[in-house]
Protein: Roadblock/LAMTOR2 domain-containing protein
Amino acid sequence: MKQGKGLVNGLNDLLESYLRDMEGDVVSVVVSDINGLPIAYKTVINLDINSLSALCALTINHMRKISGETKLGDVEYAIVSYSGYVLYIEYIYGDLLLMVVANNNANMGLITYVTGKYAEYISNLIKSTKDSN
Structure:
């Protein structure tokens, strides 16, 4: 995906807004391509964004293979609970991923709802940027 400065700035603005809306429950948010290349991110903790993006993409790609082999259907999102945080991964536009790292006591229902809304905002931003080029 070709990135223009306007697109990256728009993504950064949306990710900043997402963190504000989640009022401390979410500590990192990342937009990555399916190959694990981070496109935009915001984080308030010390997190290796490159490793997170690469390993999440690898995991989702393996989950896609499992779903293909087992006929379970397409992967829509994934939630992984760690001892300190929760990782939520959702597809957005095309093969882009939206990865959210939340505190382990965060309201996951709210996170899935707000993440879905921001996935729409990001998709619309990408579509409008493509249409204007």
Summary: The mean pLDDT is 90. Strands lie at 26-32, 38-43, 77-81, 85-91, 97-103. The longest helix spans residues 108-132.
